[in-house]
Design a protein that fits this description.
The protein folds into two domains: 2-114 and 251-263, Diaminopimelate Epimerase, Chain A, domain 1 (Roll), CATH 3.10.310.10; 118-239, Diaminopimelate Epimerase, Chain A, domain 1, CATH 3.10.310. The protein is globular. The protein has helices at residues 32-42, 72-86, 128-132, 158-162, 168-173, 211-222, and strands at 2-10, 19-26, 46-53, 56-62, 67-68, 90-95, 98-105, 108-114, 118-119, 138-145, 148-154, 177-184, 190-196, 201-204, 227-231, 237-244, 247-252, 254-263. The chain has an 18-stranded mixed sheet that branches. Helices cover 20% and strands 45% of the residues. It has six helices and 18 strands.
Length: 266
């Protein structure tokens, strides 16, 4: 059995930057163990699997260790691939997080996600500030996503976020936590980094789903909409965030890096 494979660098206008995602369009669903094994073999933060079910396209996302409920960059990548192969300007996927659409926005793409607001009413677990290495000014709770607790750590400056060297082993094993670290940006409205060891990813290069939390948070703090954002991981990536009531629209570019075929036994 030969299956097409495309690797796309999402939220970047050039290869070797942004967040790489594998996109695989399958003729039918394989069993979950095989999907998970493929994602582990790909060894990217996310592999997106797309299957046509009648008139609809179903999309699922796997990290190297777990299936997740929401992934922004792999949805953007899947939209880029489907629009390139099938034509048109809009594609809608049915997912664990409801209907998610991707459409062309000039030379870029726009992804529509549900807002995931933070909450100040949840106490962080003991030791979270310690494993981050540098205590943030605030820690807010975010609803559980990706089979792990999410937290939003707010710092004073971009430099504070850039210099973080958290203990991601302890963060994942002891706390089962994923942490979005953010601060006002020097040249953009806000910056972030995302550490997701609770879902098997030490640091994600550019994270669409975290901006479903970051965009409404910074819109309220800065009284500004839309907002320009940059995730300041080693690879880095840029996003334009537009909050529209209970939805967040994220605009970013995609660059195809690799095309090939995955060969599996029948």
């Amino acid at each position: 059995m030969e299956l097409p494979f495309v690797q796309v660098d999402a939220f970047s206008d050039r290869p070797l930057a942004g967040n790489p995602a594998a996109v695989m369009r399958l003729p039918r669903w394989l069993d979950d163990a095989t999907l998970q094994a493929i994602a582990a073999e790909n060894n990217l933060s996310e592999t997106a699997f797309v299957v046509r079910e009648g008139p609809r396209l179903r999309l699922r996302w796997f990290t190297p260790t777990v299936e997740v409920d929401l992934c922004g960059h792999a949805t953007l990548a899947a939209g880029c691939v489907v629009l390139a192969e099938d034509g048109g300007d809009l594609v809608t996927f049915e997912t664990r997080s409801g209907s998610l659409s991707v459409h062309r926005a000039g030379d870029a793409y726009e992804l529509d996600l549900p807002v995931i607001p933070p909450s100040p009413l949840v106490d962080p677990p003991p030791g979270l500030a310690e494993v981050l290495g540098s205590p943030p000014g605030e820690i807010l709770g975010v609803r559980q996503v990706h089979n792990a607790a999410y937290w939003l750590a707010v710092y004073a400056t971009e430099a504070d976020v850039a210099r973080l060297e958290p203990d991601t082993v302890r963060m994942g094993r002891e706390l089962r936590a994923n942490v979005i670290c953010t601060a006002p940006g020097d040249t953009v409205d806000f910056v972030s980094r995302f550490f997701a060891p609770g879902s098997g990813v030490a640091e994600d290069p550019v994270t669409g789903s975290s901006h479903a939390t970051l965009a409404p948070f910074w819109m309220e703090r800065l009284q500004k909409n839309p907002l320009r954002a940059r995730q300041i991981s080693r690879r880095g990536g840029s996003l334009l965030c537009i909050v529209d009531r209970d939805r967040v629209r994220l605009q970013g570019s995609c660059a195809a890096y690799l095309r090939g075929t995955v060969t599996l036994p029948e």
